[in-house]
TrEMBL record:
Pfam families: BPD_transp_2 (PF02653). The chain crosses the membrane at residues 20-39, 70-86, 98-116, 143-162, 191-214, 267-287. It comes from the Bacteria. It is a multi-pass membrane protein. It is found in: Cell membrane. This is Branched-chain amino acid ABC transporter permease. The keyword Nucleotidyltransferase does not apply. InterPro entries: ABC_transp_permease, BCAA_transport_permease. Belongs to the binding-protein-dependent transport system permease family. LivHM subfamily. Keywords: Amino-acid transport, Cell membrane, Membrane, Transmembrane, Transmembrane helix, Transport.
Amino acid sequence: MSHDLGFWILQALNALQLSMLLFLLSIGLTVIFGLMHFVNLAHGSLYALGAYFAASLAAIGGYWLGFFLAPVAVAGVGMLLYSGLIKRMRKSGPMAQVLVTFGLIFALLDLTRIFWGDLALGIAVPDVFQGRTAFLGVEYPTYRLFIIALGIAVLATLGFVLRRTQIGAMIRAGVDNDVMAACLGINVERLFFIVFCVGCALAGLAGAVAAPLLSVTPDMGLQILIPTLIVIVIGGLGSLKGAIAGSLIYGCVQTFGAVLAPQLASVLIYALLAAVLVIKPVGLFPAKG
């Protein structure tokens, strides 16, 4: 199989775009798990809600209204979930958390069907990102380049906050040892709440930016859940480095696997997942705690 350099650049950009979308979704879930020790399988449903909120708001005021307000709306849903359910389930053990949040997936799925129906919705790409842009000698959709740039910007922002600010130091302390952090005077409960809401907002942001590329359907949260969990398991729980590493690995394996070994493309990522679980069960870059 021979392809020119432009073909491989396109595949690399496709892999990077998929990776950045998965990163936006996985970083919130992995930090929530790392800090709160809470297994939230309904995180994908919040991604779907973000897409639906964005579609509804875009129909009223255009793409950018949905882009900016959908994460806020999903964070609001996260606040309700935390106050009414998550806070009570934190000490109940992983099995109960898995069962409750798994049931929450279907509750949110039915709620989206009640409010928006079963028909797929769509969002038009904003005018500023219409068409294609010359990049590294190839023509690539401008909106996909925007997703890549957004993912890199979120990565840089989170990296700065976690490593250079006081709240980042408190989050890292809570991930490493939440009991000791509480003994040092850190309000761990408030920290849990902030991190959970930010994680929900990032899931909503991922849904908003994915909506113009994908059909907005009630089951899109279920479709993204398995890739997100694979990213987290490969990368390691609770760390920014693990989230981006797992996302890049998943994007590259899926994209280049479909080109180099199409017959095996559907099983390559699961083979890699199994290898990581055997060789390093905690993932490649887990948080210290």
